[in-house]
Structures are given as C-alpha cells and as structure tokens.
Known about the structure:
The complex is a heterodimer.
Chain A: E1 4-9, H1 21-28, E2 34-40, H2 46-58, E3 63-68, H3 71-84, E4 92-96, H4 108-127, E5 135-138, E6 142-146, H5 150-161, E7 165-169, E8 184-185, E9 190-191, H6 192-205, E10 209-212, E11 215-223, E12 226-233, H7 248-252, E13 256-258, E14 267-269, E15 271-272, E16 284-285, H8 300-304, E17 317-323, E18 325-328, E19 332-334, E20 351-353, H9 354-361, E21 382-389, H10 405-419, E22 424-429, H11 439-449, E23 453-456, E24 459-465, E25 468-475, E26 480-486, E27 488-493, E28 495-497, H12 501-508, E29 520-522, E30 526-530, E31 535-537, H13 547-565, E32 569-572, E33 577-579, E34 599-602, E35 607-610, H14 620-624, E36 630-632, H15 637-649
Parallel strand pairs in A: 1-2, 1-3, 3-4, 6-7, 6-18, 7-10, 18-31, 20-27, 21-22, 21-27, 22-23
Antiparallel strand pairs in A: 5-32, 8-9, 11-12, 12-17, 13-14, 15-16, 19-28, 24-25, 25-26, 29-30, 33-36, 34-35
Helix pairs in contact in A: 1-4, 2-3, 4-15, 5-6, 5-13, 9-10, 10-11
Chain B: E1 5-10, H1 16-22, H2 26-34, E2 36-39, H3 48-52, E3 59-65, E4 68-70, H4 71-83, E5 84-90, H5 92-96, H6 98-101, H7 108-116, E6 134-137, E7 140-143, E8 147-152, E9 162-164, H8 171-182, H9 255-258, H10 276-287, H11 298-306, H12 311-315
Parallel strand pairs in B: 1-2, 1-3, 3-5, 5-9
Antiparallel strand pairs in B: 4-8, 6-7
One iron/sulfur cluster is lined by residues 579, 584-590, 608, 624-625, 627, 629-630 of chain A.
Amino acid sequence: MKRIGVFVCHCGVNIKETVDVEKVTVELKKHPDITHIENYMFMCSDPGQNLLKNAIKEKKLDGVVVAACSPTLHESTFRNAVEEAGLNQYQCEIANIREQCSWVHKEMKDATHKAKVIIQTAVAKLKLNESLSAISAPVTRRALVVGGGIAGIQAAIDIADAGYEVVMVEKKPSLGGHMIQLSETFPTLDCSQCILTPKMVQVSKDENVKLHVNSEVEAVEGYIGNFKVKIKQKAQLVNPDLCNLCDDCSDICPVLVPDEHEEGLAWRKSIFIPFPQAIPATFTIDEDSCLGLDPIACGKCKDVCEAEAINYDAKTQIIEEEVGAIIIATGYDLYPEENLAEYGYGKYPDVITSLQFERILSATGPTNGEVRRPSDGKVPKEVAFIHCCGSRDPDRHLSYCSKICCMYSSKHAKLYKHKVPDGQPYNFYIDIRSGGKQYDEFVQQAMEEEELLMIRGKVARIYKENDKMIIHGVDTLSGKGVQLEADMVVLAMGIIPSAGTDEFAQKLKLNTGEDGFMVEAHPKLRPVESIQAGYFLAGTAQGPKDIPETVSQASGAASKALALLSSDEIFHSPIIATVDTDLCSGCGICVATCPYDARELNEAEGVVEVNDILCEGCGACISACPSNACQQKNFTNRQLSEMIKIVAAN
Amino acid sequence: MAKPKVGFYWCASCGGCEEAIVDLHEDLLVVAEKIDIVFWPCAMDFKYQDVRDMSENEIDITFINGAIRTEEQEEMANLLREKSKILISFGACSQIGGIPGLANFHDRDSIFQSSYGSTCPSVDNPDFIVPQTKTDVPEGELTLPAFHNTVKSTDQVVEVDYYLPGCSPAPYLTLNAINTLLAGKRPEKGTVLAPVKALCDTCDRKDSKPDKIMLKDIKRVSEVELDPEECLLAQGIICMGPITRSGCTQGGEGRCIKANMPCRGCYGPIPEVQDVGASMISAIASIIGIEGEENMSDEHVEKIMDTVVDPAGTFYRFSLATSYLRRKLNDYAKDNN
Ligand SMILES: Cc1cc2nc3c(=O)[nH]c(=O)nc-3n(C[C@H](O)[C@H](O)[C@H](O)COP(=O)(O)OP(=O)(O)OC[C@H]3O[C@@H](n4cnc5c(N)ncnc54)[C@H](O)[C@@H]3O)c2cc1C
Ligand code: SF4
Ligand code: SF4
C-alpha cells in the first residue's frame, strides 16, 4: 500500500477564505489511505516545497497530493520538488481546490466539503498511479525547408549557419519567391533584388544546404525528430551542372508563353531562365509547352546546345530524405483578380495587379523600370491605386485585412511619382493601416511630399471610356459619390495562401485555418510552431505579412527547429495511450480516431500498436475502444471509475 | 466412487439453453455416463421437494439458465445455490439478463397493461383481471409466484461460481466446462468459461478491414446487400463483434457472422467492460461522421444519429439488466423487485 501525504495550501487567503483548511486537515487525517496531512500558507513557496520534501523523507511517503491551485500553474513545481526528494514525479497529483472550488463557491461549509471530495479523488487516482519516465527517441539532425521565398531562404541560412544540414524544396525553377519580383521595398525603398540575391547566393554556396528546385513534397512519414520525406522532382531536361548559360537555346526555341516572373507582362520561351540571377543558375525547360519532348516536332535546342546539357528523356525523380524538423514556408499568392469582375481586370489591359506594377517599376522588368501602361506603352499621367481589393469584405471576398497592401500601395504611389514627376496618383482606401517601425512616417511623407491624393472610399466599378479608365466610387468622408478618370489602375489584391496549400496541408496533415493559412500552435505564445510536433511555420504561409515580419518569423522558426536538432534525443510526456494486447481484438475502431496517426493495426499479430512518440495522449482512442484494451497511462478507466465513485458517494 | 451429482434448471428463458444441452448429441451420452443427473425438470420428472430434501452442497454442479423474473425463479435460485457446490450461470439471460432483460425498459404495470389490458388485441379482459399472488376460490386459496418489477441476472440474486455465455452457449464450451470441472480443475471464481478476446480477434472477415474504419452513417441489414466477406462494421452495419466475447463457434469465426448477419452481442462483454451499451455507443460515435467532422453542422450530426434505429435494443440487446442503466426509472425504482 502506498504511503500518501496530502498538503493543503491556503494560497494566502485565496483558498482559506472559503475552504476551512484546518477542518479538511483534521477530518482527512482519519482517511485510511492518507498517511500524513498538513496545511501551509503557500505551498509553492520555497518553505512550502521544503515542507513537502522533508515530509517525503521523514514519513517515508511514496505518493503526494498537493491540494492547491490548477495543475496548469504549479504541477511542474511540485513534481520537481517530489523528484528532488527522490520520488518519481508521477507520484505527485494536484487536487485543484482553488479554481475548481474556493474561487467558485461562497459557502464555506459546502466548499470545505467539496475540497475534501476533490482531495479524496486525487488520492484514489494516486493510489493507482504508475511511476513513469519520459519517452525518448533519437533525432535526425537535419531540417527540411519547404518553400524558397525569403522565409525559406532565411530559415535555411539560419539553420545552416548553426552547422546543421538543410534540405530545401522549391516548386519553381528558382529560389526567390515573390520578393525577387518586387522593385523597391517599403519603408526604406531598398532594391529588393539587391538585398535578396546575396542571400540566394549564400544558400546556393552553403555546403550544408541541399537544394531541390522544380520539386514538391510528395509524402512525409514518421514523427518529430524522425521524418522520412519523399520529394518529387520534375524531370531535369536541362542538366544544371552542364548548362553554361550561353542562351543559344532560348534564341532558337520557337515557343512563346507568358512569363510568370513578369506576371504575364512579357513573353518567355519554353526553354528559359526565370531571371538572370536565378538560383540554381541554369536554363530550364517548361515541359508543359516544350515541343521537343516529341522529337519529330522539335528538338532545336538540343541541337544547338554545345554543352550537351539537354536530355529530353530525363524522368521525374523521387528523392528520399530523412530530417528531424520541417519548416513550412510555402508563401502566398494574390487573391484571384477574376473574382472582382466589376474592376475589369482581364477586360482592360490597363487595369493591372499590384505585382504587375512591381514588375513595371522594376529596372529589370518588361519596361526597364519606366512606367508605361500595357495597352499602348504610354506613360500614364494619372494612376489610381485601389487598396483592399478582395480584402476586408467578409460577405463577398476575404474577411481579413491583407496587412501589407496599404503600405505597398503608398509605396507604389510614391515610386510612381519618382518616375513620373508630373503624374497624379490617387489612392482609394478604406482606412490606412500603417503600423510598424517607420511605416506611418513613410505614408505621411508620401501624402505630404508626393502630392498623392488619398480618397477614403470603396470603388464600386471601373470601366473604360475612350482612352481613360473611369473609376466609380464613394468618398466615405464626404458621403458623396466620386467619379475619376485615370490612365491606369493598379489593384492591391489581397493575400491568400499559395496555390496548392490546401492539398499540401492535407498531405502533411497540417492544420489550416478558415482563411486557409497554416495554423500556429498558439496565436500568442507559440506563433512559429505548428500544433503538429516537429513542424514550424515561417512567413506568409502562416498569414499575410511583409518582409521584416517574414524574416523575423523565419528566424524564429529556425531557432525553434534548432532547439530540436541540437540534441540527440527528444523527450515526450509518458502520459500516452497503451494497448493491452491480451484484450485487444484488433477490431480497428480506434485507428481512425487518432488525430495524430499514432495507431496502426499490426496485421500479423492482430492487435493495434501505438507509436509512443506520435501519441499526444489526447484520449480519443480510449473512449473508442470497446474492449477497454486501450488505456491511458495514469488515467486508466479503473482510476477514473474509482474517482467517479468517490464523487458519486459524496 | 459415487458419480458427481449435476442439476439443470431454467428460469426466464426461451428453452434454447435446454436445447443447447441436448445439442451435445452423442457427447451427452458420454457425459451422462459420468454424472448423476439429480434435477432437470425440463427433461425429467423431478419435484422441487426433491431438492428441498437434499442436504447443503449435495449437488456438485448446477446449471441455471434464464433470467430472474418471478418470485419462483428467485426462490429456486436461492434453493439451488444452497444445495450446490458449484453454480454455473448458463446462457446470456442468466449471465447478463438477455432478451428478457429488455423488459426493464418497462415495468410490471405497463407489462400487465400490454399483456392483459385493452391495448392487447388478443385479450378480452374488460375487467382487467391481472395475475394475483393469491386468489380465493371455493376450494381454498390459490397462489401464483409474484411477477417482479425488474428482471435480474442470476448473479444479481445469488452468488455465481462460473459463467457460460451465449444465446445459447455453444455445446463445445459446455462440454469443455463439464470436463474441466469433472477433472477437478477449478478456475478462479467468477470466470467466464469462454475465450477472453472479442469476436473480431478470430473473425474471418478481419483481414478485409480498411486501415481506418470511418462510417458515414449506419445501415440496417435490410437496407443493403451485405458483402459476405467484408467486415460488417466497415459496411456500415452495427456489429457487436468488437465488444462481444468470441467462442460462439469452435474455431471462432462467429455464428451470426457466418450467416452474413452482424453479431448481436449474446456472448456478453469481454472482461473489463463495465457497460456494453455505453462502451459500444462510445465506439461507434468515435468513428461515425469522423471524416470532415470539424465542419459538420449540428443538423448533419443529428441526421447521422437518426440512422441508428432502436439504439437501446441494438446496444443493450442482451445486457440491459446488468448495465449501469439496469432499468427505466419509475415509481418502483426503489422497489428492487
Ligand atoms: C505587390 C506587393 C508588394 C510588396 N512590397 C513589399 C515591400 O515593399 N516591403 C515588404 O516588406 N514586403 C512587401 N511585400 C510582401 C512580400 O512580398 C512578402 O512579405 C514576402 O515575399 C513573403 O515571403 P515568403 O517567403 O513568405 O513567401 P513567397 O515569397 O510567396 O515564397 C514562397 C515560396 O514557396 C514556394 N512554394 C509554394 N508552395 C510550395 C510547395 N508546396 N512546395 C515547394 N515550394 C513551394 C513558392 O514557389 C515560393 O517560391 C509585397 C507584396 C506584394 C504582393
Ligand atoms: S491518446 Fe490520442 S494521440 Fe494517443 S493514440 Fe490515442 S488517439 Fe492517438
Ligand atoms: S479499439 Fe481497442 S480492441 Fe479495437 S483495435 Fe483498438 S485497442 Fe484493439
């Protein structure tokens, strides 16, 4: 039989005011299962803990109940104290007589009675507690980074700098993400490429980074610290090691397709390099449009390639990698312009998206940085920038604020003025959201010094009349309708999770929110971790954000991943599910109920097995098992029914 | 040496358990050679007085089948307990209340009402005369055993040594039990003399189970053409196999399952299960509508639940009397009879 000690805390007056701790002590002294009981003002204080430790030694206790506040607060305090006194920490139970008793009752008599019942249930549970130790598993000390935008790049650099290997998977032919498309970046207006390309080069040169472009994650198996990843890489029709960037091939290629990097404002060939500083630096064949896969139809580039880098027979590859941590940095896309038919995108070439305007502003863009409109190449003298296209419109479009559009639209107006000094920018906004270091100053300066005209209101419709785009809206400050003419309109499209995020998340069993972005484990306290152990979130994959925030989050995710990778072993709470193989019939009912895929039917043995590391101890399987074969350690059905019996009897 | 004395008695049962003894076929003759049947009112001419005249523990093994519904059955259970060294609770009704136990969803009054009252179409009883324990007739007083309010399992009335589960117990289990006991072996008191694991363990269809069993809704056997090889549960049929002791056929594939019918649970719970119905409801609830449950509307959930027709009769078919529910609450709730 266990020798159990009970320590009743006054919590100053928090408990003592409503629970007669003296009475509880005296009355429970007679309890047959309690060897020792005392009360003290603050059990969590050092003297309080010493009281407990001394009693364990002097009274030879082998189990302890601390009747105090919620276990979420001091369970670990007392469990550590118990360990220090030489007991297993799982021989310490907390009876919550504060949140669940003194704080919710007024009558001392009733509260005192209830406190006694709560303590007795804890004693009943403790009587059947097993001594447990943390479960450990080895850690594969490498990381996978999915997504090669600035978020993925930063995370990879941080992890590689710390000396760990990184496997990087990017679905496009080059690193860079959206940032490589941007012209100059708020609030400092530094050139996006100038600050990004050094980081891309760093990644490509780092021996710790293994980069797979044109690749996607096909499957992930395993668990925190021990993931097995299958990566599917598109056929490498151009061997990157042989390609010497001579560009003979694209000259001869007969196929023209819209250039993604230029957001469709220019054309590229079927064999192409996405942009001059692409990493890896190689031409790529776009399988979808290339004719050469059918040698009768084409094959011109192969003929001209002196380096013999082209091989039309190359096949899709499956690459297998083992990693311990996974960083998700799959980024964003723009809300589809087609959803805003009333703005005429697609119908009028001079209604463009914000990313297209970034390309127009960019020195390496389709107009070499001169602001010219797509329809006729004229320099637009009046440009309307429409904020919140799709954002903050819960009834029809996105319910959330895309956070960066006010800033980049102000930036656009400003850069436009720099390039077309006699031009007039109009910004239609709902309200300006410019929280951030130097952000409001940036917007104010644009308004004051660049003569930009801010119109508070929503645009209802855009159409073309003669050579002009007519913008219909309401000025919500004056309450009057506005009608404006402009030569070009830039739509600040909302930010949504990158295409394919849904399927990707399902494949990896990651949670996405209502808005489709990856969900963090805790919105305040664990913002860079996924609820799924071993996965970390970086950048716009988790929600709209600008570059500084993306980079900080990426570094945050990297440091969380590093914390995991920095030890040989990971430890896991031993309060998990078990299967009594003498009782399990292999009915399989429990398997589907496990949200962590921790259970599997061992067909040979005809029983279900639990993967200790994957099991989070949620208990879903336990209530499902009709055989009672499935039990949670230290929360067995027997323990629970003993506890219920006490409550029912009192 | 005198042959061991053996008795058989039936309480509230259909007679199938008696049949199950006869089903021992030639083996019965072999067994009968080795034992001395001292009481078996169903098959041979014995009087209660014969038992009353016996001394304490005179019978070596008594098999009682059927639930306890009447005063007479309770009295006989007590009497046989007193006269027997080993008392075996035989069959589902005796072990867990069985089908008669379902009457606990009603009470004496409502049962009399439906059996003798105007709602019973085949009874012409305008004065609503119901069975009385005592009736005076010119010849004297007539007595009838009282009809209890609650159906009980044998062990809710007397101490039981062993159980043979099933509706009815498979002959091979009965034979095993008799041979074991005749050989002088004594399993731990309270043992159920059948395999420990649930039916799924030995079910022929086990390998057809999908990796994850996820049900969209529940179907009744009359609504679908059942695949004769696939796990019935995976086909959306409530099969009590996962919670029911195996052993209904030697080798174990399941008596009903073999006939392409789901297990109804007559072999009772596997050890450790406290309440068959509650556990099975919990199991089914865990896997039904599990796909996309995050986004499921309350109406949808309601709709799925409506596909479980007669949940009480399905999940508690044999075990109501010994479940946590035990019976429907009524004015007699405290009247333990
Ligand atoms: C018009 C516009 C102007 C902007 N201007 C500024 C500015 O001036 N200043 C500023 O701070 N911010 C600006 N931003 C915001 C900035 O673009 C983002 O903060 C930043 O690019 C986010 O980086 P990311 O790595 O999270 O996402 P992304 O840049 O989207 O990168 C994600 C990467 O992951 C890849 N990927 C996606 N899915 C998969 C998959 N399943 N497998 C493998 N790879 C995948 C993509 O191909 C992409 O390369 C602007 C945004 C827009 C739209
Ligand atoms: S306790 Fe939860 S996590 Fe663990 S095996 Fe059961 S269902 Fe899975
Ligand atoms: S539910 Fe229970 S009996 Fe069925 S497979 Fe799972 S652990 Fe085994």
